[in-house]
Amino acid sequence: MNALRVTGGRVLRPDGRVTESDVTIDRDAGTIVAVGEETVGESDETEANGEAAETLDASGSLVIPGLVNAHTHVSMTLLRGYADDKPLDPWLREDIWPVEAELTPDDIEAGAELGVLELIRSGTTAFADMYFAMDRVADVVDRAGLRARLGHGVVTVGKDEADAREDVEEGLAVARDLDGAADGRIRTAFMPHSLTTVDEVLLREGVAEAREAGVPIHLHANETIDEVDPIVEERGERPIDYAADADALGPDNFFAHGVHLDGGEIDRLAQTGTAIVHCPASNMKLASGMAPVQRLRDAGVTVALGTDGAASNNDLDLFDEMRDAAMLGKLAADDASAVPAEAVVEMATAAGAAALGLPGGRIEPGAAADLAIVDLDVPHLTPVHDPVSHLAYAARGSDVRHTVCDGTVLMRDRDVLTLDADEIQARAADAAHDLVARAERD
Ligand SMILES: CSC[C@H]1O[C@@H](n2cnc3c(O)ncnc32)[C@H](O)[C@@H]1O
Ligand SMILES: [Zn+2]
Question: For the Amidohydrolase-related domain, which residue ranges apply (predicted)?
Answer without folding.
Answer: 62-409
